[in-house]
Each structure stands twice: as C-alpha cells, then as structure tokens.
Amino acid sequence: MAAGLGGIFRNSNGDWIVGFHKSFHATSAIQAELMALQEGLKIARDMNFVDMKIETDSTEIIKLLYEDNQYLSNTIIEYRLLMHRLKLPTLKYNFREGNEVAHLLAKEVVKDFSPIKYFYYARPPLFVELELIRNKHGICNSTKYLPTTVCNSIATLGNNNVLKDYALSMESYV
Q1: Model-level pTM?
Q2: How far apart are CA 84 and CA 105, in angstroms?
Q3: Which residue range or ranges hold the RNase H type-1 domain (predicted)?
Q4: Which of 7, 54, 103, 127 makes the best surface tag, with the fewest CB within 10 Å?
C-alpha cells in the first residue's frame, strides 16, 4: 500500500526545529509507524539531538520497543540500538490529535504518490502552520471520553497528562 510518514522535531517551547516526510510502500500500519520512528531516530542521530522526548500515537510501537517480542525482532533490535546511541530518549504515547502536525506531513507526501519523495523542512511548510500554532498553545480539535482503565493503560505508556485531565474532569462532576 502507498504510505506516507511524517515527523517533527521541536524545542522545549514547542517551536519547530526540523520536520520531514517521506512516501514509501508499506505492508501494514505498524510498518509505517516503525518507518516513521526509524527516520526520526536517524535524523536525530545525524543532527546530534540528545535528551529528546519522542511521542507516538501508536501504543503498539511502544510495546514492541519495551517488551520482549519476537515479532520483527531484528528491526526492533536496530531501533533499540539507535535509541541507545541517542542516550535512550523517552518514548511516550500521545493521542493522535497531539501528533496532528506529523499526520499532516504524512498525508501531504502521499498526494501524487511517488516512492522517492523525501523532504526535510528547516521551516514549517504552509500546510502545517495553523496546526503547529494550535498544537503549541494546547488547542485541541476534539474531546475524548475514556474509561478509567484506558486512562491507566495510557499512563503506563508515558502519557501522564491523561490522568491529570481525568482528575480535572472528575472534579467538574463534584
């Protein structure tokens, strides 16, 4: 299947450092997510980024990297090695809405699909600027209501905001 991947590096203020997107053929959504992570890790290595926090909206990727699993074992070992070279960046879960800029980058590259498209952006392209600003200021496009068990599961994958938001929503019922 034709697929696109996208990623963004930001500083601690949420400002754009570099972004990228690439088109390729993928056999599954997991493969596409793994390819996006791999590209991001390689860019981080090449640009000497350390002390990073990586966010993904794929719980499967986090589980594959942190749990012993024979599925895609050689690939997973390669990613773990890259992460080790980058001084073990934090990998945590974020909702898709929190990664919307990366999704816009991925969607854009599959328009007029060609398996050799690969772009780096030193500045945000126009088609992501509005979402980048919204993201930086914590503006969300939607609200989700999740069971407590799901919130706890997401928290174990590194997103502790979900517990804070859950506690705030519970206070509003009191």
Answers
A1: 0.77
A2: 27
A3: 2-108
A4: 127
Q: Reduced to 3 states, what is the DSSP secondary structure of residue 14?
A: coil
Report the phi/psi class of residue 138: left, alpha or beta, with left for phi > 0 and alpha for psi in -120 to 50: left
pLDDT digits (tens, 9 = 90+) for 40-99: 999 999 999 988 999 888 888 888 888 776 666 787 888 889 998 998 888 888 777 778
- For 40, the enclosing helix (H) or strand (E) is helix 29-46
Domains of the chain: 2-141 (3.30.420.10), 143-173 (no CATH)
β strands within the chain, DSSP E:
2-10, 16-25, 53-56, 90-93, 118-121
Pairing of strands 53-56, 16-25: unpaired
pLDDT score, position 143: 56
**1 within 8 A of 27, measured Cβ to Cβ:** yes
Q: What is the CA radius of gyration of the chain?
A: 17
Q: Which amino acid is at 15?
A: D
> Quick one: which of 1, 52, 45 has its CA closest to 25?
1
d(CA 39, CA 18): 13
> DSSP class of residue 85?
H
